[in-house]
Design goal:
The protein is α/β, with parallel strands linked by helices. The longest helix is centred in the last third of the chain and has 22 residues, at 264-285. It starts with 26 loop residues before the first strand and ends with a helix. 38% of the residues lie in helices and 15% in strands. The protein is built from 11 helices and 13 strands. The mean pLDDT is 94. The strands form 3 sheets. It has a 7-stranded mixed sheet with strand order 2-8-7-6-5-3-4, sandwiched between helices. Strands 9-10-13-12 form a 4-stranded antiparallel sheet, with helices on one face. Strands 1-11 form a two-stranded parallel sheet.
Length: 357
Amino acid sequence: MTTQHIRPRDDLALMEGYHSPQVDVPVRLNTNESPFPPPPAFGERLAASVAEVQWHRYPDRAASELRTRIGELHGVGPEQVFAANGSNEVLQTLLLTYAGFGRTVATFEPTYALHAHIARLTGAGVIEGERDDEFVLHLDEVDRVLAAGDPQVLFLCSPNNPTGREEPRALVEAVLERMTARGGLLVVDEAYGQFASWSAVDLIGEDTPLVVTRTYSKTWSMAAARLGYLIGPAWVVAELDKIVLPYHLDVLKQQAGVIALELAEDMETRVAAVVAERERVMDVLAQLPVDVWPSGANFVLFRPRSRSGADVWNSLLQHGVLVRNCASWPRLEGCLRVTIGTAAEDELFLAALKEAL
């Protein structure tokens, strides 16, 4: 007797998952995590809060305190905040709500791969625009994509992952004007926004179809917690609350998010340290035989000139340094991306890179 197995949806059968190599090496600079752990006070306060948890009760479904505190950070009310399990669940909920079968999502490559990946998982079509050879996005390319695909959701990533470039405010404002006129939604992914020179949060309004997504993984040193959020109009957040699974944020995650916000001064210190270290690393890279692109994030994209990116990646790994090989991204053949680490980690990376080159 032949056993028949149910097949996945035809549009998913050939898709690959999104994965980052996790290799046990002394210096891991491939996933854009914070090089610093949370301050000691974070762990102490979180441990104390565990004793107060009523484990036999469901968590606050609305995550009211967390959303209120996040809103205070950005000068908005809790009704304009949506929190979820990492910014990826924020993106998933957005796309389940505003994309899906019969709708189209626009991205501009190279950019964060999960924008298109999650869109396709929801059944949406994806139209991919192009950045120029310096990975700059031009408004005429946005207009071409809008005319060709009529997207309901359009993604901008600023600073862009994996290139590190910030989108100029004038470009974001122009794209927002176009999406407003078309009745679409603009999503500005600011996973690295705290390292940048400006934020699109200032453009959010109740009459504006704009949302900005953020994560706790980078500047808040909480990659292990998987917590992200969105700031947007209240009418968008209300729709997301209808779609997300009930009780999706557990008690500890909500408490961890609130406690982290109480230590904002420590976060700002960490951001300043990473930005200063980023500039130092870029100054050294500028003296080496590599092409380097401007970065407003906590990572730097570069392409070796004298050796292939794959050879340099392998050489770095042999020296115990793991960076991200970006060859799988569109038009990034030979490119590598290095997360800014501690000064000691970056010194080991730079020494290994000089030898690899």
